[in-house]
Amino acid sequence: MKILLVDDEATILETIEQKLRKEGFSVFTAASAEEGMRLYKQVRPDLIVLDVMLPNRSGFDLCRAIRKESHTPIIFLSARGSESDRLLGLELGADDYVVKPFNLGELAARVKAVLRRARGETPLEIAESGDLRVDPRTHMVTIGEEEIEMAPKEFALLYFMVRNSGKVFTRDQLLDRVWGQDAFVTSRTVDVHVRWLRSRLEADPSNPKRLLTVRGVGYKFAG
Fold first, then answer.
1. Containing domain of residue 99, as a range?
2. pTM of the prediction?
3. What is the widest separation between alpha-carbon atoms in the chain?
4. Among 19, 76, 104, 166, which residue has the fewest nearby CB atoms (within 10 Å)?
5. Sign of the C-alpha dihedral, residues 88, 71, 22, 54?
6. Of the candidates 16, 120, 7, which has an alpha carbon nearest to the alpha carbon of residue 55?
7. DSSP code of 96?
8. Which CATH number is 133's domain given?
9. 70: helix, coil or strand?
10. What is the DSSP string of 122-190?
11. 77-136 per-position pLDDT tens digit
């Protein structure tokens, strides 16, 4: 499988490249967002490992550009480890967020875990509830005739909840089912994504009718 590494630190590029090649991956490297975008279009990698702080354009900018045309898995690397930075990366559609300094073995394990989830995480059945339709084949969410745009993790969370309509899930269960045990996220990540989903789906997000809070437990989708 093909991995694209984008980082402006030559030493980091070299060490990660060597590790992933030993793990059996074909690795392509870029030192800027512009070069990363060019290589992305040229080689169509199976996964991208992307530094946040790059010259001229940030890794966040590159992630936005890639997400306009594909759902290729992305793992962010960054020295910026605040919760707000991690949440921003996940909101933009990243599949994982690894804080520098990091262990090479752990990074390789995260790459494999994200690839496993990408290969088999989403069944092709359409999920529906009333006028809401969630189609994993086209990554499209509609309410009636209106199309609702969503980041990949928002979509994954909504799809899971609609497929399990009426069931109550704790935050830890949702983290495990939607983000996976290897993702660098906290229970607050679930709350933030639920808030974003309500802003997109509910007529009155402060008084939700679809995605409900079960006090002291977690969340459920009311079918």
1. 2-120
2. 0.61
3. 53
4. 166
5. negative
6. 7
7. E
8. 1.10.10.10
9. coil
10. --S--EEETTEEEETTTTEEEETTEEE---HHHHHHHHHHHHTTT-EEEHHHHIIIII-TTS---HHHH
11. 988 767 777 778 877 888 888 888 888 998 998 898 888 877 765 456 889 999 999 998
